[in-house]
Structure prediction request, 64 residues.
Amino acid sequence: MRNNNISLGLIFGAGIGLSLGILTDNLAIYLSMGAGAGLALGAGIDAFLKKGRKDCKDKKSNPS
Prediction:
């Protein structure tokens, strides 16, 4: 599941960077910035989802 979240973030970031690059006529900079931000976003989503799954397993195994 990790690769799916990171690739999803990369795709969204590259799309946003591509759009900004076309609008500002500076494609290379915004595409690379968008891809980097997308990778960070995907990694953050992945960490958030992993933490949520771990918390759910702890709550199920410890009914109090």
User: Anything to note?
Assistant: The chain has one domain: 2-56.
